[in-house]
Specification:
By secondary structure, this protein is mostly helical. Helices cover 81% and strands 0% of the residues. The protein starts with a helix and ends in a 5-residue tail after the last helix.
Length: 332
C-alpha cells in the first residue's frame, strides 16, 4: 500500500531537517489517532458484517457489494493498520521498529497484502457507484440480476485488486520506489473518475425524476438506498482525493518537499474512510438501523423488521395478511 510499507520508503528519503522537526508529542498524537481509527474500523465493519449475517432483510443482492467493501475495510483495520502504527511509532522514536532493508522479504509480503486490501476497498466503492447507476437508469434489468452475477462482480473486484497489487509490488522490487506511482496514480485516478461520473449522472437523474415516481414503493426504496450509497461514494472521494493529490505531488516534486505531519494527516484521513461507512449504513439504510436497534434492545425484533417489510408491500397484501392473522388468532 502506498501509504504504509512503500510509504515508509518516502519517510526514509525525507530530509534531515524534516526529521529533526518531529517531536514525540506529534508522534503520540498521530499514533493515538491511528489506534482510534483501527478500533473504530474493526468495531464498525465487524458489526456491519454480523448484522448482515443474522438479519434476513439485509441479505439481499443490492447489499452484497456493501458487505464486500465492509470486509475489505475490516481487514485493513485489523491487519494492515496495526503494522502501519508500529512503523509510525518507530519513525517518531516512540519504540524501536525494524523495517529496514534487512527485512525486505517481509516488507514485500506486507506491501502486497496491504495493496490488495486497499485496492479492494476502493474498487468496491467504484463498483457500488456503477451498480447504483445501473439500478437508477435500468431498474427493470437491475431487478433481474441474479445472485451469481453479484458473486461474479465480487470475484472480479478481488482479481483486479490482486493484479494491480502485483504490478505495484513488482514495480517496487524490480525498478524503484518512484515507479510505484506509475501504477498507483493512473489506477486511483481512474477509479475516482468512475465514481465522479456515476455520482453526477445519478444526481442529475434524481433532479429530473418526477414526484409521482418518487412515491412508488419500489422506486422509493431504491431511491433511499441509492442516496445512502451515494453518500458513501462522496465520503470515499473526500478521503481519497487528498491522498491521491499528495502522492502525485511527491512524484512530481520529490520526497524532499514532503512535510511529515501532512503525510501522516493524509494517511489518517485515507484510513478514516473505512470507519465512516458503517455509520452511514446505520443512519441512512433503514434495515441496518432497525437491525441494530433490535440487537440493542432485545425486544420485539420481529415487529420492528415487519414494519420495514410492510412499507415495501402493496396495501392489499398487508390487509390480506392482517385478515389471515386475525382469522387464526384464538377467541377470547
Amino acid at each position: 500500500m502506498i501509504d504504509s510499507s512503500a510509504g515508509n520508503k518516502t519517510l526514509e528519503n525525507a530530509s534531515a531537517s524534516t526529521r529533526s522537526s518531529i517531536s514525540k508529542a506529534e508522534g503520540i498524537a498521530v499514533c493515538s489517532a491511528l489506534i482510534l481509527s483501527s478500533v473504530l474500523i474493526i468495531a464498525g465493519n465487524l458489526l456491519t458484517l454480523l448484522l448482515f449475517a443474522v438479519t434476513k432483510p439485509l441479505r439481499r443482492k443490492s447489499l452484497f457489494l456493501v458487505m464486500n467493501m465492509a470486509f475489505a475495510d475490516l481487514m485493513l483495520g485489523a491487519i494492515t493498520l496495526p503494522f502501519y502504527i508500529y512503523v509510525n511509532g518507530g519513525y517518531y522514536q516512540l519504540w524501536t521498529a525494524k523495517y529496514d532493508s534487512e527485512h525486505m522479504a517481509y516488507r514485500i509480503f506486507y506491501t502486497s497484502f496491504d495493496s490488495i486490501l486497499m485496492y479492494g476497498s476502493y474498487i468496491s466503492a467504484a463498483s457500488i457507484s456503477c451498480e447504483r447507476l445501473y439500478a437508477v437508469f435500468w431498474p427493470f434489468k437491475h431487478r433481474s440480476l441474479s445472485t451469481r452475477t453479484y458473486r461474479g462482480i465480487i470475484f472480479l473486484i478481488w482479481t483486479s485488486a490482486v493484479l494491480v497489487s502485483t504490478l505495484t509490488t513488482l514495480s517496487y522490487v524490480l525498478s524503484s520506489f518512484e515507479s510505484i506511482f506509475l501504477v498507483f496514480i493512473p489506477v486511483s485516478s481512474g477509479l475516482t473518475l468512475i465514481i465522479c461520473f456515476c455520482n453526477i449522472a445519478i444526481w442529475r437523474n434524481f433532479q429530473r425524476e418526477s414526484v409521482a415516481s418518487q412515491h412508488r414503493n419500489g422506486a422509493s426504496r431504491n431511491r433511499r438506498l441509492t442516496k445512502a450509497l451515494l453518500l458513501v461514494s462522496i465520503l470515499a472521494l473526500a478521503c481519497w482525493l487528498p491522498f491521491i493529490i499528495m502522492n502525485l505531488l511527491v512524484y512530481i516534486y520529490g520526497t524532499e518537499t514532503l512535510i511529515a505531519w501532512v503525510y501522516f494527516m493524509m494517511n489518517t484521513l485515507n484510513y478514516s474512510n473505512s470507519f465512516v461507512n458503517p455509520i452511514v449504513y446505520v443512519f441512512r439504510i433503514p434495515e441496518f438501523h432497525q437491525a441494530l436497534r433490535s440487537c440493542c434492545t432485545k425486544g420485539r425484533p420481529a415487529i420492528e423488521m415487519v414494519k420495514i417489510e410492510k412499507r415495501n408491500r402493496p396495501t392489499s397484501e398487508i390487509e390480506l395478511r392482517n385478515f389471515t392473522n386475525r382469522s387464526h388468532s384464538p377467541v377470547s
